[in-house]
Amino acid sequence: MATLNRPGDGDGHLCGIDTAMEVIGGKWKVLILWALHEGPERRFGELRRMVPGITEKVLASHLREMEADGIVRRVSYDEVPPRVEYGLTKAGVRLNDALEPLAAWGREVQERRGPEGAP
């Protein structure tokens, strides 16, 4: 999913963070990555339950985008009824590893805020 009309390199990105944010941007993609990291293969319904609040349409769209970006693989089994599973590619695992320090920072912020969410 290319971003158009942006300054920077020929592809419109200013730096590596800019490119990474294009891949993981939005409310749901990092949560989908987390859910896929929790187990080797996940079915669509499992992912939907693991990411409360996401709609089927948004989940399907994000999975397609993440597959196109090379961080999610989709495996379709020739069975009746049809079975499709999703997992992380090596690039997806590396991306999750890169996001771990951000998750650790978030946990520290949660602990400082306490149960009421106070600053």
UniProtKB/TrEMBL annotation:
Keyword field contains Zinc: no
Keyword Transcription: yes
Domain HTH hxlR-type stretches: 15-114
InterPro entries per the UniProt record, alphabetical: HTH_HxlR (IPR002577), WH-like_DNA-bd_sf (IPR036388), WH_DNA-bd_sf (IPR036390)
Superkingdom field: Bacteria
UniProt keyword list: DNA-binding, Transcription, Transcription regulation
Gene Ontology molecular function: DNA binding
Protein name: Transcriptional regulator
Organism: Streptomyces filamentosus
